[in-house]
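Take a look at this chain, tokens included, and explain the fold to me:
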Amino acid sequence: MVRFFCSMQKNRCLVSDWRGGYMNDFTEGKITKQLLLFSAPMLIGNLFQQMYSVVDMIVVGRYVSGGALAAIGVSMNVIMFILSVLIGLTTGASVVLSQFYGAKEYDSLKKTVSVSILSLLCVAVVLTLLGTTLAPFFLRLLNTNDDVFDDAVLYMRILMGGIVFPVFYNMYTAYMRALGDSRRPLYFLICATMLNIALDLYFVIGLDLGVLGVAVATVTSQMVSVVMCVVYATRKIPLLRVSKLEYDSRLFRLILRYGTPAAMRLAIVSFAQLTITRLINSFGTAAMAGITAATRIDQFAIMPVSNLSSALSTFVAQNMGAEKEDRALKGFRSALISMLVCAVFMSIVLMIFSHPLISIFLKQGDIDTPEILRIGGEYLNVMVVFYFLFAILFSFNGFFQGVGDAIMAMAFPVVSLTIRALSAYALVGFVGMGPEALAWSIPIGWGLGGLGSWIYYKKRLWVGKTATQAMSAASQD
């Protein structure tokens, strides 16, 4: 049984089941407070999630070599390319769940969970086989240096062998967030991250296993996180409890409608990133290691903006599902202001501390350390000045995702990164820049992508694309 009540003291509406699990209803209450409170646990969770790869890199960078750091960096780019299909389907299903939740259509919501589990499991098995088998082929295409090639293949094969764990973790946490619960996944992730750190230190420093050790530690920790997450969701959240897996072709098509553009976006984005990685590799191992370290710092820095974008997507989806467009638009404006403030703050912090942060990843006394530090510092110092452009682009992205305009939520980030890749090659080939060209190309992509998003938003071309409207139209055909 599900019962509804409003908590006036907290200025928000909640839905509770008899087991005591609470979900946020964003169709009522103070907008800015809701967005910030909802995104805060997501931010902390993503910080810990990033710790999986960052701790791997810090441990191998400081206790193995800069070459090992470069190996993990190049293999992670290939892994993200392969993961894009699965993450895209998860994104599409979570939007559908949010809109069904806002419209109070709980039967369709539970069927969506069942359909997505079946489809993601099948695709995960196929991609695991492809990723482990073709790892050397992918890395050769990226012109990976011979001195890091073997370690890169080893790391990639182990992580691809356990790809089902991050996929199902991301699926269940996305569904919890779609229903308004961003706290529980955080608790599970903190436990798993602490385990990952302990295993990294034990395998690399204690047993001297190098890249093998950090790979096994990562997969083991991911397995623990998904087990905790799935057990909690099935026991405590009736809307996510699936007693029997069943297939619904109409819901599967709806998931594909929202998920395929997201998968294509991530695939194209990852492919563009791979072309950039190939360009980075052409500058040698020091450039690979330096930009890998700078990129990891950048990923931490943009998290507040990215998480506000995700929170905005859930907020907009629920309100559009409840036919409250004015409230959805107010949420967009509130989120944009908050994202700009975060972006400016992080720009200032990184301009001051860029070199000390990059040095965390480096082994003192290594012959390549000074060059790695120089390249990484130059890359980061150029890019961070333009974080406000990233905030603008991803505020629109979160809004388009929430209203169900999956095509445009895909298109503008893809256009942005494609422009970045083309700009990077142009700056190197025609202007004669070195690795710093890779940094200057980033704000070019953000700026043009944000401009296109603003024009599309002002013309209101996103109207009429929610999941509930699509289901209603389909039932009338």
Q: What stands out?
A: The longest strand covers residues 2-7. The beta strands are 2-7, 12-17, 22-25. Confidence is low (pLDDT under 50) at residues 1-22.
